[in-house]
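Please, structure for the following, as tokens.
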Amino acid sequence: MRIHGKGTFVNPYYQSMKLWLNPGTEFSQLIRGSGFEASARALRVYTVQADAIPIRGPESVSGPFTAIESLYYADNAPCIFCIDYLPSAYISEKEDIDAFLNSFHHYLFDKTGKSCKREYIKLSSISAEELKALCGGKVYLNSASCLVHEGHFYDQNNKLLFLSLAYFDTNYLDLSLMNRI
């Protein structure tokens, strides 16, 4: 990445970044772009009402949602535990979830004709014990603490497409942000 007004030299921090957390980038793409072999597996699919979704953002949501719990791997090591919440009209428990995990952008466009154009992100952290409690005693990541990524994805008309709650293993993945200011 060039630094504006400084000629054509390259910012040294840019080359040392292992994983980019850019808005609208899918987790598999992030993992592959960091030099790892990416894979994902759906763990559980179920229906949940909007008031039971643990994500709170700039707008309220209503209606039934389909929740997809999945685990993303980098070189066969679990690195991201994710729960995506889609309005049930977009997906059902019977559908091929692998298509969604492979590319939520393509899946949503094929199903609805809508594409992700904007994302609201909230970042925080959580301990391994807190994550274990949230997951009903199951341990998905081997990390003492996790970065929590709450995402709200919107279409071209500023309508909510889906919500995402992801936990990153910060021992395995080095997350970096670089924003233009």
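The chain has a mean pLDDT of 77. The domain at 19-174 is CATH 3.40.1410.10 (Chorismate lyase).
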